[in-house]
Amino acid sequence: MKTQKDWEDQAKGLLKAELKRRNVTYGQLVDKLADIDVTDTEPNIRNKLSRGKFTAVFLLQCLCAIGVQNIGLTEMQPH
Hints:
Elements: H1 4-21, H2 26-35, H3 42-51, H4 56-65
């Protein structure tokens, strides 16, 4: 059974992988979020991702801002 930390690590890994796949830095993410009227700072984003604690809304905003249209969840099945 997965722990809360396991789920947080998966969410963090998903977002970091999508950022890396698109070569988007945290600084660029701030700008892309601003383009969709979401205000955040680079240090705040860095902290959220390092802790792995952020809302589903933040995750969706980030994915939308960087142009993700599909995500694969095959490796995210509960154990």
